[in-house]
Amino acid sequence: MEYLSSGKILIVDLAAGETREEELEDDLISKRIGGIGITTHLLGNYKDQDPIVMGCGLLTGTLYPASDLSIITAKSPVTKTVCHLPVALKAGIEFKYCGFDYLVILGKSANPSMLWIHDGVADLMDASAVWGKDVWQTTDAWRKEMGDDLIQTLVIGNCGERCSDLAQVSVNYWGSGDIWGFGSLFGEKRLKGIAMRGMGLLEVAEAEGFVDHSIKVLSALKQAPWGGKTGITDIVTAMGRQDVSDWMAPMVHRNSSSYNVPYPYSTFLYLDEDPALLKEPEGVEPGIMITSPYVAIAAKDSGMSASEAFKTIRSCLRYGIDPEAAMQISAAEGKKTRGEMEAALDSMSRKDTVGSRPPFSHYCPGHPLFADFGTGKDSGDFEEWWMRRQALAYLFGVDPMFMLMSPEISAQSMMEAVRLGTGVDISEETLNFLVTELCA
Amino acid sequence: MGVRVNALTCTGCMACEMACGYHRDDAFALLSSCIVAYRTREKKDYFGVILKEEDSLVIARPEGMEIRKIGDAGGGGGDSSAKPMLLRESCDLCAGMDGGPMCARFCPVDAISVE
């Protein structure tokens, strides 16, 4: 693939300690488009070697609005089914610019290891020095070691090292949409994480046409009904939890966006500084970023004060445990204080079997946000609509949360962007076939 | 006339950076853009945008916007990612492109203006 792609797949064999490259065939893109269309295909190709597959969409890292997404696909230890972890913030595009569109991780390493991908080069390196360190310590250590604070990391903490199915793959310092226990898969492979830095360049087939199309979509989005709304607080309000919004609002420092996403839904809370501070704080670690409305809701429902609840969430983020699940389990066990919850992290486990879940992370609410998609459905009847919107996001590389608030980002619009960007004409038949398969 | 940034409106999405890179390279890349979002102080959530002009650096931070003449003490412009700001080309207001500077056109929250 010549456009919007590096045209390469990276295969990493942890047991052998080797990496190799394969060409990404145009024919595969014509049939499977990209994103989870191709990660699921690669997962099937290597199904006997405990694969974890990462990939990006054709639109990831472009000027098409909300094009922030890469995805990790694997068989979840929680559901025993194939599931997809959205990788957003700035990590999704960092992967795309590293020089590989897809990454297949096979086997298990004998010793703690990490994968360092940068500018078309992949290095498997010893990670003994950070094995036992938490998520924040690990990201700090790798950024310092490589001498670049813009390195993006996908990393596990102590929870992943002990192979708990509550373990998340964290993005830099923060929680992710990993409700699948993918962190435990990293732990079983003794893979501490992936560090990424990409300074590549993506050629565009019809550059002016692509940019004009993108600006038209953005112009329409700027008229959208979410204008003026911001952060996790307005999302939880739209979910019927105004109480959560009011409870956490005094701690909000700022709302920021994932790459090129018009709605800023990453909400940074200052726990140890004045949230109104308009200068660089003196403290090195003054707060946390919340990227999931369900984490905010679980924090509120813990019964603790906002300060204590979010300090507990900070401990969860450092430990690399799914903070929503950890708060819910702690509450169910009758733990009422931060100290009780933190003391339980090392032994925390999932008590109940998890029933079937959709393959897409539920950190995105199951209904439209702020917008009217013209579905004509009553509330509570959005499952099919939600699955299709998520599948489209994960196929093309568009932010899955923003997909819930932007009817302007339609399948036709993304297919047109792909046509202009790559010269590949995707038929509606191909797209519908894939979406149906991926939602099954 | 120059590009100006309101750091308090900016959400740090980097669309401006990519749009500028597109203007330079006719492709998508970040290394050649003359406008860059601060990202290096992630744990502090300290943020802003830095822009290289012909003779100066425009630095938009929560404290306000500052224009430093290149060469003055302290005018090096840290936080500029892998390629130092001073090695980048200066803003040309997207000369030759219709519709004005690409960074302003692609900013989803209208934090960038031309004054």
Walk me through the structure.
The complex is a heterodimer of chains A (440) and B (115). Chain A is built from 16 helices and 14 strands. Chain A is of the alpha+beta class and 440 residues long. Chain A folds into two domains: 1-227 and 357-440, Aldehyde ferredoxin oxidoreductase, N-terminal domain (Aldehyde Ferredoxin Oxidoreductase,  A, domain 1), CATH 3.60.9.10; 231-347, no CATH class. The longest helix of chain A has 15 residues, at 207-221. Chain A starts with 7 loop residues before the first strand and ends with a helix. The model of chain A has no long low-confidence stretch (mean pLDDT 96). Chain B is an alpha+beta fold and 115 residues long. Chain B has one domain (3-106). In chain B, 14% of the residues lie in helices and 22% in strands. Chain B has helices at 15-25, 102-106, and strands spanning 3-5, 35-37, 49-52, 56-61, 64-69, 112-114. In chain B, strand 3 and strand 4 form a beta hairpin. Chain B is globular. The termini of chain B are close together. Chains A and B meet through helix 7 and strand 12 of A and helix 1 of B.
Structural class of chain A: alpha+beta
- The number of helical runs of chain A is 16
Q: What low-confidence regions of chain B span 5 or more consecutive residues with pLDDT below 50?
A: none
Q: How would you describe the oligomerization state of the chains in this entry?
A: heterodimer
DSSP summary, beta strand count of chain A:
14
Overall pLDDT confidence of chain A: 96
